[in-house]
Design brief:
single chain, globular, Immunoglobulin-like, 6-stranded mixed β-sheet, 8 helices, mainly beta
Amino acid sequence: MGIKIKIAAVAISLLVIGGCSTNNSQPAEEKDHDIGEMDHSTMSDMMEGHMSHDEVTSLNDSTGENELKIPSMLEREDENSIVYTVRAQKGKTEIFDGTETETYGYNGSFLGPMLRFEKGDKVKIRTINELEEATTFHWHGLEVAADVDGGPHDALKPGEEKVIEFEVTQEASTLWFHPHPKGKTAEQVYNGLAGLIYIEDENSKSLGLPTDYGKNDIPLIFQDRTFDDKKQLNYSAAKNEDGTIGDTLLINGTLNPKLTVNKEKVRLRLLNGSNARNYTFKLNTGDSFVQIATDGGYLNEPVNLKEVTLTPSERAEIVVDFSQLNTENDLALINEEGSILLPFEVSDQSGAISRIPGEMNDFSLTEEEMKLPVTKKVELFGMMDMVTINGKKFDPERIDLTQQQGVTEVWEIYNKPDMMGGMIHPFHIHGAQFKIISRDGEEPPENERGWKDSISIKPDERVKIAIQFKHKGVYMFHCHILEHEDNGMMGQVKVE
């Protein structure tokens, strides 16, 4: 234990040297308390918490005893003005047979419905907070004005409601919504606040891809959790300041799920909705599948892959052709460790006829964008509750960056290693989709050459992105390990 404490102390001192202690938003006396009075137990806890991301808790295999739940599609209340009502609620959910778990949800007790938009829609949403604590409604990946984005400035108190309006101007994609209150995002998502958004457009309707929702077009929200001995989501007991990771996987809120499919092409819309866990998805047979979309839209061409990795908040759409797979043996989606995430049961029936077109989009990174100089530098650094961006913790009164509306700029994001080597940070920018120019000077892999709003950045990696904001206002940028976000690994860009 003594060795661990010494190493932790060195790591902490290096963090201070690296810029954590220069946080302008934190009073000097608080900094002294954080560092100077830290006892050996606290330092050891920090060390253990950080080490847990080097040896991540394994997931229990799905037994496949429960058919996967499919989120309901929220009905429009007024076809002309496209009104939805979304309520943040507290409830009880039977995740385990015979036991009610206290949970949060949208328009129900756990998770939320799917909202479907079409490009060009003028959308009006009534948001209502029926929780006993403040929350926000953040539309992750949606290009909207900052005053409806749902960042920490837009908190609704218990009982409050707000009507937001926006026009859908972006292309077909799979987005999601979740809370974003200052310091409470991780716990509220952990308790169940998350829902899906589908955007469709004329292009998506013409491609001939699988589109039968819940049949051959399946959303998959992956979230790992730890349940206590009473089968409750006890966040305070499970919490890890470096990112809370659990041993039990829920997909769409389903414990031990399986998915029954026909012998046809099936589109899986993967969302890493976990607080901190990364997933590398693959088939247990070693067969390949096709990725067709990134966070914010279709790839130009389908990409054949045997695995795809998503960090928290990233999405990917893949197509698995179950008519071409050997289904005599067990078939399942697994992760990098071989844990069974989602067993498939393939029926004898042939399904709908769909196709994977050779051309799906006209996404491009222009020569002009490639030649733009770096005008924004973002440095991610630290661990546990000592995480910073550019040496500072989040201050709602401080603007960190400014950018002109409609002007493309190049941001360089650097994940600075710490004494322990550092960890992957998923980096998310609100209110815009961006293009990846390079990773450490190299072209991004084929399956990342599409619109993105979140990006995985490894320790000591530098990523350049081209980003343009369509709307004015103040937007967040942050690490999407939710505990890091809550601990201040977040900044603000003002679009003027």
